[in-house]
Structures are given as C-alpha cells and as structure tokens.
C-alpha cells in the first residue's frame, strides 16, 4: 500500500515549492536575454502586464483543478467530467502531460549537469587542478554522463522523501539561498566597469517599441511558460495545498515571486554582459544582436570571471551554485508529475516509484547524450515548442468548459469566502475559457511561423 497522500504543511512551503518550479534555468538567463533583444525595459513592461493579465489566470486553472481533485494530473483531468469520452480525453491529456514533463526532465538533467561541472570547475580552478578544470569544462560523453547521473540522483533523493520532508523542506531551503546568491552577485557586478550600460539597456525603455507585434508575442510566450504551465507541475502542487488557503491569493503570490526573481535575474545578467564587453569579450552574434541562451553561460561569463582575477573564482562559484539551485528546484517539480501518478494510481511506494521513474528518465538522458546532435534539439522542440503550449490550452479548456461552474466556485470559495462578490470571479472564468486558450494558440502559431 502507498503512504497517505502528502500535503504542504505551510503557506511558505507551498510558495517556495511553486516558485521554485517556475524559476528555472530559463528564467535566469532566458528572460534577461529576451529583454535585451526586444526593446529592453519596453519588453519588461509588457511582460509584467501580460504575466498578471494572462499567465496568472492560466496558473489558476492548474491550481484549482489540482486542489479540487486532490490527485495527479491523469486522475484530476479524467475526473472533471462524467461523460466517458471527455473523461478518456482528460486522462489522455494527463498522460501526455506526464510524458512531456518526463522528456523535459531528460534534457534538463543534461543541462543541469553542465552547471554542476562548471560549479566543480570553479573549485578546481581555485586549487590549481588545471587538468580537472579542463575536463570539467570540455564537452564529452563521459563528463555528461557522470554529471547528469549526479544531478538525477539529487532530484531523486528529494522526491523520494515525500511532499513535506522532500519537496517542501528542500524548496524552503534552496529558494532563499537562490535569492541571496542573486542579490550578492548583483551587488558585486554593479560595481564593475560597464555595468551601468547594461543597467540602462535593462531599465530605460524605448516606448516606441511597446506595441511591436514581435515584442508582444515574445513577452506573452515568456509570461505563459516561465510559470511552468502546461505540464501539470502546478496542478500537482495545487493538489497538495490546504483547503484553508485562498487559491487566488496563493496564485498571485507565486506569480509575483516568479516575475520578481526573473526581473532580479535581469539585474545580474544584463550588467554582467556589458561588464564582459568592457573587458574585451564579444557579447554579440554575427547579426549584431546580444548573444542569448546557453551561449551567455558558457561563452561570455567564464571569460568574464577569468578577467576578474582572484575575485572571479568566488564569483564563478556563487554563480554556478545559483544555476544549480535553480535547476534543482525545477527538476523536483517535473519528477513529481510522473511519481505522483505511480504512487496514487498504481499504489507503488514513493521511494520505489522515484527510483524506477528517475532511472527511466536518466536512461532517456543517456540516449540523448550518445546521440546529442540529433536528439537534444529535437526533444527540446518537441516538448517546449509544440507539446507544452497545446497542453496549456487543453488544461484551460477543461477548467473553463468541463469543470462545472458551481463546483469551480465552491472550490475557489474555500479559503476565500467573499470571492463571489470580488473582481476575480467576475473576470477570471471568461479569461480561462476564451482569452487564455486563444492567446496561447496565437503565440504557438506565431512561434511556428
């Protein structure tokens, strides 16, 4: 028999876990570089508006379904309708969400392994172990396998410990550490030559670009997908939330924390890039645009740390510790999606479920490592570009059209007695039924085009 179903023991624990799920590697480097290539502060302004006007309602759809069902994503979506066809479709959507979360974790484990390698390299560099540093920072099958195995083991250990003793405990420790490291790094970087130029790019808006279609579409995509929407992580975390908590309030806090950390990350990455420019390091591509994605982490920042002298070793150590923590808080939420299904529907003990599923996902990571050129980009596109948006649409439609309105209201009123008279209830149901699905589909279509 499986153990009794877990639940977050505190509001703080849920907020840290949900925010940790949302705040991943993409937030730390993806949001700042999108900002730089889309009008600087103009992008930030549009992103902030869309995060609360559009992404927050979609987040609420997952939270309310999860807490109502008190179950994994397959059971939760399958149980929203008593009509056989809709119930089967809900279960299929849930299973596809489980598969998507697992595939995301398979490539995420590899990238997180790189962060562990660079974290270790900052130590070997300080101690003069040049051969070890070279091995840790050079791409190889052996390095990727070992580092991915270590990261997968960390994720598996936390998930196998349960909701309170695993997810909640470690999220409550890791997230404050993440914010603390971010703040310390920002304070240091802003004292370096060139930092103010990066700060101006980040904070001084070119208001003429605010209404550019490309900027709005990019900001919309970032707002939706920075909150881990579409694969069931927030749905599962919502299922562990107490009935005494106000869902609209909890969703708003998670959104604020996620957006806030993304914004704070921009205060680090953009100034750091221009500090690198001041040090003679190239920060633009062939077209003259700022270098984006992982190139910042592995091509721009390591030479910057080297140029800082003795202090650079400690800055590198803090930075890659930050990146490893960001990766871990996201990975535990992704592994929880399939593990919760195995524990609840198949009555498998949590440690055994975590080991079996975590091991299977690591096997996929191994397959990707041995076929890196053909599989790595393919799996990323399949999951984040195609599957995640469509799953987000499905969850919004199930919440808006299949979830019975009176049951939805009763669920939301738990922990929020006067909700029916508030602005949220007057606006949100229409948003989740019509606006969110249409805008996610529009963003999806534009990304394909």
TrEMBL record:
Its main location: membrane. It is a multi-pass membrane protein. The keyword Transport applies. One of its GO terms (cellular component) is membrane. The chain crosses the membrane at residues 12-31, 43-65, 95-121, 145-163, 175-195, 215-238, 250-274, 314-332, 352-380, 386-403, 423-445. It comes from the Bacteria. The keyword ATP-binding does not apply. Keywords: Membrane, Transmembrane, Transmembrane helix, Transport. It holds the Pfam family SNF. InterPro entries: Na/ntran_symport, SNS_sf, YocR/YhdH-like. PROSITE patterns: NA_NEUROTRAN_SYMP_3. It is found in: Membrane. NCBIfam families: Na_transp (NF037979). This is NSS family neurotransmitter:Na+ symporter.
């Amino acid at each position: 028999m499986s153990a009794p179903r877990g639940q977050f023991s505190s509001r703080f624990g849920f907020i840290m876990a949900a925010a940790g799920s949302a705040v991943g590697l993409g937030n730390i480097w993806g949001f700042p570089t999108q900002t730089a290539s889309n009008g600087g502060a103009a992008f930030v302004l549009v992103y902030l508006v869309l995060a609360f006007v559009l992404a927050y309602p979609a987040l609420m759809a997952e939270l309310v379904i999860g807490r109502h069902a008190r179950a994994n994503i397959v059971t939760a979506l399958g149980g929203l309708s008593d009509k056989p066809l809709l119930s089967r479709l809900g279960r299929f959507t849930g299973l596809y969400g489980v598969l998507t979360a697992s595939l995301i974790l398979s490539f995420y484990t590899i990238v997180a392994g790189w962060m562990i390698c660079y974290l270790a390299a900052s130590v070997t560099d300080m101690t003069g172990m040049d051969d070890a540093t070279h091995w840790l920072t050079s791409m190889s099958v052996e390095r990727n396998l070992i580092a991915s195995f270590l990261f997968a083991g960390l994720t598996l250990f936390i998930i196998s410990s349960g909701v309170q003793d695993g997810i909640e405990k470690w999220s409550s420790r890791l997230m404050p550490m993440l914010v603390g490291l971010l703040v310390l790094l920002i304070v240091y970087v802003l004292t370096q030559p060139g930092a103010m130029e990066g700060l101006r790019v980040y904070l001084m808006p070119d208001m003429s670009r605010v209404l550019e279609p490309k900027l709005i579409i990019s900001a919309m995509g970032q707002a939706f997908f920075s909150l881990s929407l579409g694969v069931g992580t927030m749905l599962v975390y919502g299922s562990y939330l107490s009935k005494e908590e106000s869902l609209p309030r909890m969703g708003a806090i998670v959104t604020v924390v996620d957006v806030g950390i993304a914004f704070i990350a921009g205060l680090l990455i953009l100034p750091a890039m221009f500090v690198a420019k001041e040090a003679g390091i190239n920060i633009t591509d062939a077209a003259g645009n700022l270098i984006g994605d992982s190139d910042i982490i592995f091509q721009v920042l390591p030479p910057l740390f080297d140029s800082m002298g003795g202090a650079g070793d400690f800055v590198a150590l803090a930075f890659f510790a930050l990146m490893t923590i960001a990766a871990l808080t996201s990975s535990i939420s992704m592994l929880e999606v399939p593990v919760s299904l195995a524990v609840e529907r198949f009555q498998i003990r949590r440690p055994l479920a975590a080991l079996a599923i975590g091991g299977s996902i690591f096997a996929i990571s191994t397959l990707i490592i041995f076929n890196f050129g053909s599989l790595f980009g393919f799996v990323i596109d399949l999951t984040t570009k195609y599957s995640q948006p469509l799953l987000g649409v499905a969850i919004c439609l199930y919440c808006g059209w299949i979830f019975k309105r009176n049951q939805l209201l009763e669920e939301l009123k738990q922990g929020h007695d006067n909700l029916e008279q508030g602005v949220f209830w007057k606006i949100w149901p229409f948003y989740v039924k019509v606006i969110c699905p249409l805008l996610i589909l529009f963003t999806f279509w534009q990304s394909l085009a």
